User: Fold these one by one.
Assistant:
Number 1:
Amino acid sequence: MEPYVYVVAGFGALVLLTAWLPMVLKALPLSLPICCVGLGAALSLVPSFAGLTPHPGQHPGLVEHATEAVVVISLMGAGLKIDRLIGWTRWATTWRLLGLAMPLTIAALAALASTLLGLGVASALLLAASLAPTDPVLASDVQVGHPSEGREDEMRFALTSEAGLNDGLAFPFVNLAIALTGGGLSVGHWLAVDVLWKVAVGAVLGALVGRGLGWLTFHLPNVSKLSRTGDGFVALGVTCLAYGLVQAVDGYGFVGVFAAALALRASNSGHDYHRKMHDYAEELERLLMMVLLVGFGVALVGGGLLSGLTWSAVAFVAVALLVVRPVCGWVGFAGTGLPSDERAVISFFGIRGLGTVYYLAYAFGHAQFEAPDLLWATAGLAVLVSIVLHGITVTPVLRFLDHRSGRDTESGQLDLVLRDPQSH
């Protein structure tokens, strides 16, 4: 029988699991990503898949574009679900995570990679920049709820808004690592172009695209409003248009997509159509995420992704996830008055995921770095440990905090059901 028949059948099963698993796992200390990676690892042991499990480093272009697609869809969904209008005071926790915690994390991880793994400056910086951002794809369990639900506590808001922006803001450091491999780095040029210009273009042009499409969607004469279509896939069009236009003028497309989503949401924040667009983006993101994480599981076992792993790399991952991110996050919130338990949760749940894979693939497609197998193995282990560690702990931790705080959130309601099933 032709192999594609098995692929078609497997894809059908994956689509069904995409719909069913979240309901089954809701009350369990497990997550959808854990199941996807486990499924991929199991598939790699099937003899017929033995020759179909290449190392991701062998196809950086394919890996780059596949992970790029799921990240930009995730950024659109994250922007649409945020109820809070952007502002200096309203987003104070976000600015601290981006302006303090992330640069501190990159500096600490780069120093750790240099001393513990023996990497040169360029490779150490690349690994640090790839691991610094909170992943918007895998962080859905710690993000705010659907648009206009009114369940936007500071803890979930901080993690959602951070994940929406820091993937794009890690790009200057990845580009700096690429520039360092060529030896012709100009600090002035890097600051002017890679930091200021590309970030500004992404934010401004993305916001203009979102505002313009928001006018077309909500403010045209009634018969012409896009919102009358009721089609959620408009979110995909907004995503692709914003990303393509920003990239075309050499801006950061990740920043542009999130800015477009925020501007679109702000154009008529209470409209029900935002829920339809968000739900479509979320469903598409979940499906793409499952496909890629199954592939990640296959690469872990059958593709030899961890073949370059060393004990020093294992120690690096442990320190990065359990010490560096929590400490840098905690320091970033110094003097804010944020409750210590929420401060600890925000600092700890800096989930690493497909964004890390994207940045590595992007960098390897643009420059030659030393110890590529070690970089892939270390990053792969960090993503795996983050998926398992954060996936197991997120449900009980958030359920406990929501119940104690009396928040009317989904996890808080679930906690009441688990404690007293007769009450529901």
Number 2:
Amino acid sequence: MLEKLFKLEENGTNVRTEVLAGVTTFLTMAYIIFVNPSMLAATGMDKGAVFVATCLAAMIGCFMMGLVANYPVAQAPGMGLNAFFTYSVVLGMGHTWQVALAAVFFSGLCFILLSLLKVREWLIHAIPLSLRTGITAGIGLFLAFIALQSAGIVVDNPATLVHVGDLTSFPAVMAALGFMLTIGLVHRGMKAAVLVAILIVTGLGIAFGDVHYNGIVSAPPSIAPTFMQLDISGAMDVGLISIVFAFLFVDLFDTAGTLVGATTKAGMVDKDGKMPRLGRALLADSTATSVGALLGTSNTTSYVESVAGVAAGGRTGLTAVTVGIMFLLALFFAPLAGMVPAYATAGALFYVAILMVSGLAGIDWRDLTEAAPVVVVCLLMPLTYSIAEGIALGFITYAAVKLLSGKGRDVNVSVWVIAALFTAKIVFL
């Protein structure tokens, strides 16, 4: 049955290798079951329900990617997208989390439509590489800023907007320790470095009396507080169109980058640079986003940590299905997830930020028409506390500097359209 489903022999692999690859991928991304509930809880969502929704959305996404596309790529609620959901849409713009979930749901429907019409594939190839890189790096810097805030390392100041906090406070020290521990363990080659660092810092919090021990294993909490709680009518407001588009856009290129990286590493890309069954993979990703919104979590997306599983030998969808089974088993560790404090995940956020910012090394800094829009995106995302605004101003800057520098013909028509839409949104909405 497994041979028929995943074509193991054809892909030069076997069940043992695929299962080990799946476990490897899970260990590198399991931090999301702790980070996502903590982040979304800031919106007023029930932390236990979000924990269950996170595990179920990841399981469903992994099963779909494995069974529909036969890709060794795992899915779960995405970092960056959950930050946009919490800090931009809900806390920044003042929308309810129910409206934000509906916006995620609609973005998922848009994903599905664009995937079926193959528009998504066209967009992936049409947007400039520098802007894709800048958006990823900008989200990374935004996550770093959030991490510093949650640890109390950066605090508000009426005169300078931001200021250094009390670096000797327990949260600040623990966050710094978690970050340095993560880097040290990653450098030593530990697959579960992020997860181990989070658990060690949480353990220290318990030892010093800052965190109360509530057990490790129990029956999963109820998902009722978030299940099907979307405010569809509230999301119909014209002002939320840009939010739906932002969810769509960020997830689009986040997924594209992950799929390109994972399939290239696995040797699945043909001589023309095309990926097999790309349409199926994109459809699986987009469907998982809508399902995740119904369950009660932000966008479900493909994880770059899947490359760890590919490096361990994963070549088929059995790797992704194995990850999905691991997320299902994780449902029974809700008490442990509930004990994890914000400062324990701050180090993980900062580590993820480094991975996302590292892509800036590929930017041609000698060409200011490419570099300037990237810097605009990277700086304005954290400084405006809005991923959407950073993306918008990045596109507008890209189109404007290309036009004024005499390189207007080099700009793809899709960029002009997107820049015009963002400009109209700023002027009229």
Number 3:
Amino acid sequence: MESIRRQNPQAALMSLEAAAASARSGFACVFSTADEYETALITERRAQGRYTQSRSYWPLTLFIGCALIVAGTVLLLA
């Protein structure tokens, strides 16, 4: 507190203004709207490969298995 009293009022005011500007800049957001944020987020996730479709053979395997079960049941009952 004494260091502020020893400075002249103009220097103290400039110091406080600089501290306030520094504090405000810490809370600034890069995006001005939520749409900009979501667009950037989706672009980043696409670059990481999160939205690519993976090939899964489970549906085809289950279909063939069910078809074989039905065919086996028909052959047993016929």
